[in-house]
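User: Sequence in, structure out. Go.
Assistant: Echoing your sequence, followed by the structure tokens.
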Amino acid sequence: MSALKYSGELRLTLEKEIAQGWIIPLPLSYISSLRNGELAPVGMDDKQYTVQPDGSKQVKLRLTHDQSFNTSHGKSVNDRAVSEELVPLYYGGCLSRIIHYIISIRLRHPAVKILGGKSDIKAAYRRINLHGDTAELSSIMMEDFGLPSLRLTFGGSPCPNEYCVSAELCTDLANDILHCKNWNPEKTKSPHASKIQPTKYLDESVPYSQAKELDVEIPPDDHGRVDDFIDDSIVIAPDINENSGRALQALLLAIHILFRPLDPKEKIKREDCLSLGKLQEEGFLSETPTILGWVINTRLLTISLPNKKYDSWNRDLLEVIKSKKISYKNLEQLLGRLNHAATACSLMRYYLNRLRNTLTNWQVTGHTKTVKRYLSSPVLEDLKLWQRSFLPKIKVGMSLNLISFRRPTVISWSDACPSGLGGFDSLGNAWQFKLSLEDSIACKNQNNSLEFVAALITVWLGTKCHWLESEACFLAFCDNSSAVSWLYKASVDETRNLPLHLAARKYADVLLQAGCCLYSQHIPGQKNVVADLLSRNFTHSNSQLTTFVLETFPSQVPPSFTVSPLPQEILSWLTSWLQKCREKMGLQKILEIKKQEYGDGGTSTRDASTSTTMFGWKNSPQKVGPQFSEHLQQRSVDDSFPDQMRQTWLRQQCRRPLQNWVRFLGQTWGTTPHMSQGLKPCTHPYQDSLEG
């Protein structure tokens, strides 16, 4: 459909690609005589826009191949690709690596400016040739001509992997040049070096935000680093020594070296490998570089949406809210935008579940994708929340400290069972809540949700401490694997599980309001002793439980451990949440107690006693027994709880892909740390929090 809609633009694009030698025109009848000749549909991608200086949007068209189209062979070209033989992709963690490197610089240099810049390779995919057999499979049709694609296509699943080889080679070379002590950028440079604009600095009045400690080891490097994402090459460097004059130069020189220089006598028209238009617009180092669609403020350590992108997205969002309806295509685009925006704060994705479910239901019902449909009131409320709160927050900027791999500053443990909930944290907060009989019955099939709520309340209680440091990082331990996974990601359909849906949204709201981040990990139930005790023992006072835990499990809790009643705000929300559970189960009248009546109980069949009844009391000769009416768990002989927590944390760290915080390809200027060297274990589950 897009090929017909943009037929004029499609023809101009194909003529340009033929002139540049990216596509070869053949008679249409000749395609069938090729050994691997196949035709695939072609279209014009119109999902991207270029924002004009006046704020208006202009559709940015790009030729695409539908190589997922099933041919006469029964399988598409993409389905026949052997993915196991492809070179792995590395640029997926580019933004994360850049963020971690910026934080590592700030940790080493609290008051040093950090500069960033980038350059683009023009028509990057068209720089790489396709194998002859693959070119025949990637043919398209225009009028009476068959057009085999000689270069990488937009739509071929192996193409990103194929291009990755050249992109990473260029990045490695740029890093080697940047770290070469003998390189003189005044003598050996790109022919476009003169086009680099002066470095742009923020005003000196802007403060230097400080970085929080990472739990991964970033190799120290004050020369700067180059990374890449497809055709974007990015450089970050501290503003020390001669870095401001070398960083971007090294990047341009590497691109120039790898691509053959242009010859004016060439018969086939070729364009410069460097995107000169973007170099003129973005070819400078700055403390606020725009990287992969984000503005990174290296002085404030924030990530935000560019103003033009925010204005465009906000305007479109307002139009949807005002009209209350949207087409499938626009809904898909809107969801993609908001999901991209949530890169700056993953907690906001908890407020996209209704939108995702709407899109899924649209697919299931099979309604046409072009006709607009009305959105439900809850979905519209979520869109209003994004428009009024979330997008403005992301425009101002979210802290890089909250989206990096952090060393936990507060650790919490929680548990739930049919009788109650409880938990404590490394700040010393401890709590418990006894469920009524009605609530226990209503939550009979909601134990996983109860575990999630217990973890939520424990963290919520920690965020209310006045001595909690800014941008704190919580590590939540619980012995329910479902709750652990929901703390990381909860795609909940409220029509199927309303209690969990409400709890997940509250969890996100608590952390957003507190400006904190959270990790979650599973702990075996037999090791979660203190939290288990808090969720089950309701026969003793808070002071009695506090004393017992401090005396019996001194290595598992901080000295400030105190069991206290829940604050009224948390208690009110928990009571309301339990009420929703009762309503969901239809158990408002779970247990009906018959009215007690007095009357004749019947004639006794036992003979009356002849003994004399004596009234009064005397002091018991026996010694007064202990205050506790039942035995609590005794101290373990070998309490290795701190070591077990360290090992659990280390195992979790080992599951993280190394490429998300450090680039480990073919650079020659340094060595890449082994996975085990990149871990910084906590010496005690709560020691760091107490020493602060």
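User: And one key feature?
Assistant: Residues 587-606, 608-638, 671-679, 681-692 have pLDDT under 50 and may be disordered.
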